[in-house]
Design goal:
6 helices; about 25% strand; alpha/beta
Length: about 300
């Protein structure tokens, strides 16, 4: 058997993959990181191998149907058979998100902008809730983009990095879906925003959390969340979609539970102190334009209160 090893990661946090084949094969395991770039941002593919043990072992030529196993004591995923590139990237993302959390860095599902001198997270409490459309309206109003789909935040609330793409520009095998968000923007806009700054360095801390919820039947309503609901929604946004707990990984194959109890406890504690001092609102409305009207009012109130406090 021939072994190919590669590592990828972010700021020194790494995951290692070992692939075994009957014939020599030096082709990368992740040949096209399209899906990971969209969900995570630019990952680093390391030339050297530093991890003593693999996080994933793949017996690519093994006969029979593909299978997955997880050895919890050794923290290694074992794959057999013909796995698709998109499926491999889903597993890779889950492993990387777990390792990041152990380094006090957390990946959030949603968009981030700098708007009216504030860093705002549009978090996705559930899929297709309106974070992308809200991002587009913010850019139309002169805001700048920090992230289109995911952002990494450290334990202090600093935004470390964000994804550059607003829409997924293609789908790999294993990530196919019929609903395509990039065709829905024209329900709300005549054109996509063209001129805006992409902020990737010295981003700063998070100022405001917003959960946009767009539905053509909603009347406009803003509600500031209490502490538990802030934690609940943030916990959902910072992990559940990455660990695939609500979906099949492949036909007839559910995902293993890669996030251990200790990891869940760490993330829940982070969600508590991350949200404690930050204002957080859910805004329901028919359109993204109405969502941002409400965001403007919230920002006005925050700045008025800051002015009063200054005196």
């Amino acid at each position: 058997m021939y072994k190919h090893t590669e590592e990828l990661g972010f700021e020194g946090v790494r995951v290692r993959f070992d692939r075994y084949t009957k014939k020599a094969n030096d082709e990368k395991i992740i040949t096209d990181p399209l899906w990971m770039d969209y969900r995570f941002g630019d990952v680093t593919f390391y030339e050297d191998v530093k991890k003593k043990n693999p996080d994933l072992i793949w017996y690519a030529d093994k006969d029979g149907r593909k299978s997955i196993d997880y050895k919890k004591t050794k923290e290694v995923v074992i794959l057999s058979g013909d796995w698709k590139l998109g499926e491999i990237q889903k597993i890779a993302l889950a492993l990387l998100v777990r390792e990041l959390s152990r380094d006090d860095k957390y990946l959030f599902h949603g968009s981030a902008v700098r708007y009216r001198d504030m860093n705002i997270l549009y978090m996705k409490g559930r899929e297709n809730s309106g974070a992308t459309m809200t991002l587009l309206e913010t850019l139309h109003r002169g805001g700048n983009m920090i992230s289109g789909e995911g952002m990494i935040i450290d334990k202090n609330g600093d935004l470390l990095a964000g994804t550059e793409n607003i829409f997924l520009e293609g789908r790999l095998e294993g990530t196919e879906r019929s609903d395509k968000v990039d065709t829905g923007w024209n329900l709300f806009f005549d054109e996509l925003p063209e001129e805006y700054e992409l902020i990737q360095e010295d981003i700063g801390n998070v100022d405001l959390l917003i959960f946009p919820d767009i539905d053509g039947h909603y009347r406009t309503e803003s509600s500031e969340l209490d502490q538990f609901e802030k934690e609940y929604q943030t916990y959902e946004c910072s992990g559940e979609s990455y660990f695939l707990s609500h979906e099949l990984l492949s036909s007839k194959i559910p995902p293993p539970s890669l996030e251990h109890w200790e990891d869940k406890v760490r993330r829940s504690r982070f969600c508590s102190y991350f949200t404690e001092e930050r204002p957080c609102y859910v805004i329901r409305a028919k359109t993204p334009q109405l969502i941002i009207d409400e965001v403007d009012e919230i920002i006005d109130n925050i700045k008025d209160n800051q002015t009063v406090m200054t005196y």
